[in-house]
TrEMBL record:
AAA+ ATPase domain ranges (all copies): 82-373
Entry keyword Membrane: no
Catalyses which reaction(s): ATP + H2O = ADP + phosphate + H(+)
Keywords: Activator, ATP-binding, Chromatin regulator, DNA damage, DNA repair, Helicase, Hydrolase, Nucleotide-binding, Nucleus, Transcription, Transcription regulation
Top EC class of this enzyme: hydrolase
Any coiled-coil regions, as ranges: none
Single GO BP term: regulation of transcription by RNA polymerase II
Entry-linked Pfam families: TIP49, TIP49_C
Gene3D superfamilies: 1.10.8.60, P-loop containing nucleotide triphosphate hydrolases (3.40.50.300), RuvB-like helicase, domain II (2.40.50.360)
Task performed by this protein: DNA helicase participates in several chromatin remodeling complexes, including the SWR1 and the INO80 complexes.
Protein name as annotated: RuvB-like helicase
Length: 486
């Protein structure tokens, strides 16, 4: 089942747009919510010597943590380390997730990055350990080298005969290099492929012999005079020399998880699209591990350990932590980056307290990056970047007020007010958000501090833990407390 062929089957899927690369955060359902909040971030904003620039690539301040993240990044890119754990710890909205996002952006397409919010482990239809195993294996890239046979040349003529009934098609393709010319018989599938790619005489094409996949490389220079008929986007290339048939080495990166899914008999590669992979049998994984190790010895494959990012890691319980501890020692292990905003707190599933809510043994293995609260100036810069990202224009007063709000309440609350204030401005038919709009937004929507204050004052109007609520005496007559049966 797991032959080199099997892999070809899966790597061919690459020809579909971004079908199975694990580094594309858009494909991961779990990453969706992270993207919008961090879409202004395009990297860690470091220079070549790993020195953080004050504001670059959407990142502001948090210099020490960014530099530390940069060091880790360099180690990952060098492919030298695996099986390490990094913990990013700091108060809420100090840029922990932002830093992880910045790292992901800088990794490049061949290093897988998997983002996971810890609570997802409990919400999938999988056991906790299966979900974690899949997340780990998604984060390990296998670079597979394989030779493919190609036919590459300039199309001289395509001749297609349709039978009168329409069903069966037959044809001939004449194709040449500068040195030779050959005629190939065409079947239905090839004819469809040529038509789909809109291949014409004068195109330089390449046909993968194993899959029949046709790729248009461009127009032949000899046809350059037809330029007017081609449009401005036509790419001109030389007619190939030598043999029509060539061998080429291609390198594909797939994740271990993808190989698992493709080879688990019950699922098949279609599961990669539906995301509905179910549990994968341990025997399948064992077989794959053995095979990959073999390929590696034979020089056919290279392992590239990627990154598994577990956000809000304190949501995991002691069983998950034990699993991670063991998985980090595995032969194929990614770098695990965790983020938490907890101080000394209880580890889920136990009754004891520990720093960051992580058990001591895992903490012991981890190197810790600390994030710190932002200065008012930094808050202002981040908010101004966010406004640009949301295409909202703030006037100077509005930005100053928003910055003050951000510094006194929270960065997230202030960032949320940007779009709300913009709506208020739009309603007033103004294209610029003014101080007034920010004030209105501030009154309309409470931050958590004011909400708590409000709750303290009016706690008896809300349903309490016992399901009791006090209804105002005017409405409910002399009923003082009513049981709403929660
Ligand atoms: N240093 C920074 N530079 C730019 N934007 C930042 C920075 N730190 C945080 N942000 C932005 O502020 C918001 C909250 O940060 P986030 O990373 O989600 O906080 P945390 O994960 O620490 O709770 C996000 O929109 C994030 O992109
Ligand atoms: Mg976060």
């Amino acid at each position: 089942m797991i032959t080199q062929r099997g892999i070809i089957l899966c790597t061919n899927m690459y020809f579909f747009p971004q079908s199975i690369t694990t580094s594309d955060p858009n494909k991961d359902l779990q990453a969706l919510s992270l993207i919008a909040a961090h879409s202004h971030i395009s990297g860690l904003g470091l220079d070549d010597n790993l020195q953080p620039r004050e504001a670059s690539q959407g990142m502001v301040g948090q210099l020490t943590a960014r530099k530390a993240a940069g060091v880790i990044l360099k180690m990952i890119q060098a492919g030298k380390i695996a099986g390490r754990a990094v913990l990013i710890a700091g108060p809420p909205s100090t840029g922990k997730t932002a830093i992880a996002t910045g790292m992901a952006q800088s990794l490049g397409p061949d290093v897988p990055f998997t983002a996971l919010a810890a609570s997802e482990i409990f919400s999938l239809e999988l056991s906790k350990t299966e979900a974690l195993t899949q997340a780990f294996r998604r984060s390990i890239g296998i670079k597979i080298k394989e030779e493919t046979e190609l036919i590459e040349g300039e199309v001289v003529e395509i001749q297609i005969d349709r039978s009168i009934t329409g069903g069966h098609k037959q044809g001939k393709l004449t194709i040449r290099t500068t040195d030779m010319e050959t005629i190939y018989e065409l079947g239905n599938k090839m004819i469809d492929g040529l038509q789909k790619e809109k291949v014409l005489a004068g195109d330089i094409i390449s046909i993968d012999k194993a899959s029949g996949k046709i790729t248009k490389l461009g127009r032949s220079y000899t046809r350059a005079r037809d330029y007017d008929a081609m449009g401005p986007n036509t790419k001109f290339v030389q007619c190939p020399e030598g043999e029509l048939q060539k061998r080429k080495e291609v390198v594909h990166t797939v994740s271990l998880h993808e190989i698992d899914v493709i080879n688990s008999r019950s699922q098949g590669f279609l599961a990669l699209f539906s995301g509905d992979t179910g549990e994968i049998r341990p025997e399948v994984r064992d077989q794959i591990n053995t095979k990959v190790a073999e390929w590696r010895e034979e020089g056919k494959a290279e392992i590239s350990p990627g990154v598994l990012f577990i956000d809000e890691v304190h949501m995991l319980d002691i069983e998950c932590f034990a699993f991670i501890n063991r998985a980090l020692e595995d032969e194929f292990s990614p770098i695990v980056i965790m983020a938490t905003n907890r101080g000394i707190s209880k580890t889920r599933g136990t009754s004891y307290m520990s720093p960051h809510g992580l058990p001591a043994d895992l903490l012991d293995r981890s190197i810790i990056i600390r994030t710190e609260p932002y200065s008012e100036e930094e808050v202002g810069q981040i908010l101004s970047i966010r406004a640009q990202e949301e295409e909202v224009e703030l006037d100077a007063g509005a930005l100053a007020l928003l910055t003050k709000i951000g510094a006194e309440t929270s960065l997230r609350y202030a960032a949320n007010l940007i779009s709300v204030a913009n709506q208020i401005a739009v309603k007033k038919r103004s294209s610029v958000v003014t101080t007034d709009c920010i004030k209105k937004a501030y009154v309309l929507f409470l931050d958590s501090g004011r909400s708590v204050q409000f709750l303290d004052e009016f706690s008896d109007q809300y349903i309490n833990d016992d399901g009791k609520v006090k209804i105002s005496t005017e409405v409910a007559g002399n009923v003082d407390a009513m049981d709403v049966g929660v």
